């Protein structure tokens, strides 16, 4: 923005001198006649720079390295304003129009990218990480060991299908994200997108998927632990029995049926089903 503020002072002084009838030089008259044009271009160029900053700040860190060629493409459109154009050039309007088109095109791309990332990738990953892979009713009903294990098998069978579905959705969304970025038409002077950067983005979300599955598994096992064993500092009246256990007298001794070993075995079987719930979730291509 090489626009000296003294020019505005010169215009204002020339206007005042002209109004009181004092003759002003021809060069001052020429500048005075172009007052509106200078102010208009100055305002438009300021607006272009503000729009550039606003649009660039919309880019998320995950995709910043992938969008380097796109920013270079936009900077190539801005370059003639920094190198060849002057305040007396005849094609400033065409330049501004060209830059505005480039800004609008890049902004639409960033909006599409952010929409895919937020609604189709991140929201699905959050939902997946909060999936509870165990069915632990909070009512006062108690269950036999076989009922407990069977209930978990049925619940996990349904929830594991949801995990696979979310995995496919996120993988498809990442592919669409990469396709959206790569389909942007770049100027021939700009280097194309690096395949290495594309691979990095895909690996990042593949790792995020793994972390979401891991969190869901850990969270589910902790929920089982808290429901069955109870929290250490929880009031005793809050803890409700979960398993049906009878006490029998045998040979003068009190015997639990089922025994604690059998209860532990049932819990282990349920935990094993939780761990196997992600076994059919396929790794990405």
List the helices and strands and how they pair.
Elements: H1 5-19, H2 26-33, H3 35-56, H4 61-64, H5 68-83, H6 92-129, H7 145-182, H8 195-229, E1 246-250, E2 253-257, H9 260-276
Antiparallel strand pairs: 1-2
Sheet with the most strands, sense and barrel status: 2 strands, antiparallel
Q: Gyration radius, to the nearest Å?
A: 34 Å
Determine the fraction of residues in helical runs and give it as a percent range: 55-70%
What's the N-to-C terminus distance? 49 Å
Provide a count of the helices.
9
What shape does the CA trace take? Answer: elongated
Contiguous uncertain segments of 5+ residues = none
Number of strand segments: 2
Helix/strand order, N-terminal first: HHHHHHHHEEH
Overall pLDDT? 88
Quaternary status of these chains? single chain
* Count of discrete domains: 1
Beta-strand share of residues: under 5%
Which structural category fits the helices and strands? mainly alpha
Strand order of the largest sheet: 1-2
Which descriptors would you attach to this protein?
about 280 residues; mainly alpha; two-stranded antiparallel sheet; 9 helices; about 70% helix; elongated
């Amino acid at each position: 923005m090489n626009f000296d503020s003294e020019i505005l002072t010169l215009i204002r002084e020339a206007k005042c001198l002209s109004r009181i009838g004092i003759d002003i030089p021809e060069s001052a008259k020429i500048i005075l006649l172009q007052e509106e044009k200078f102010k208009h271009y100055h305002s438009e160029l300021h607006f272009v720079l503000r729009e550039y900053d606003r649009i660039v700040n919309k880019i998320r860190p995950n995709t910043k390295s992938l969008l380097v060629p796109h920013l270079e493409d936009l900077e190539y459109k801005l370059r003639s304003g920094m190198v060849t154009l002057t305040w007396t050039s005849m094609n400033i309007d065409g330049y501004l129009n060209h830059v505005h088109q480039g800004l609008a095109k890049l902004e639409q791309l960033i909006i599409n990218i952010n929409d895919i990332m937020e609604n189709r990738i991140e929201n699905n990953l959050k939902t997946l990480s909060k999936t509870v892979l165990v069915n632990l009713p909070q009512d006062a009903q108690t269950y036999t060991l076989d009922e407990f294990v069977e209930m978990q098998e049925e619940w996990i069978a349904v929830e594991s299908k949801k995990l696979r579905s979310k995995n496919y959705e996120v993988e498809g969304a990442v592919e669409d994200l990469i396709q959206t970025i790569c389909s942007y038409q770049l100027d021939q002077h700009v280097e194309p997108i690096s395949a290495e950067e594309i691979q990095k983005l895909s690996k990042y979300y593949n790792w995020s998927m793994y972390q979401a599955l891991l969190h869901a598994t850990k969270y589910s096992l902790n929920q089982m632990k808290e429901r069955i064993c109870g929290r250490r500092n929880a009031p005793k009246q809050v803890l409700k029995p979960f398993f049906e256990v009878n006490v029998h007298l045998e040979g003068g001794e009190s015997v639990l049926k089922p025994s604690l070993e059998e209860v532990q075995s049932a819990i282990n079987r349920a935990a094993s089903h939780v761990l196997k719930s992600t076994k059919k979730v396929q790794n990405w291509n």
